[in-house]
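Service request form, structural biology core

Requester: graduate student, group of Dr. S.
Request type: structure prediction, single chain
Budget code: on file
Notes: please return the result as structure tokens.

Sequence provided:
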Amino acid sequence: MDNLDYQILTELKQNARQTASDISKSIHLSVSTVIERIKKMEKSGLIESYTVITDDSKLGNDITVLMEVGMEHPRYNDEFIDHINKDPNIIACYYLTGEFDFMLKICCKSSDHLEQIHNRIKDYPGVRLTRTHYVLRTVKNIHSSGFDAETIAQIK
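Core staff response, request fulfilled:
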């Protein structure tokens, strides 16, 4: 990747629906070069997908929590992951180091709904312990990694 690829990625992160023509104007490259570079990043797997970001509260999901889950033994991890992947209210799952094994991000409609999800998770084989944190307000929420300071300096 070079400086131009970083500039294209920066533009796509701001709005993945913008046209190659708009990107080309913004970073002063030809449209065909922008298209070629985007296709190259897609083919290499650097760009994995394009997605829609929704406002969960407008979908009726007024509660967001982060739930730490501790497992009895790693032999339960694969089955736990299978359950997690099937639950549409669990929108992110991270495998961790430390006291807890997993961190789940859960969006749901109400406290009653959260209680149902929580009980279901506690019933999964191998779950030893959970700790739940209510999200009061989202301060920052980006959907892919940013660039380090050195890379940002190169882009500018």
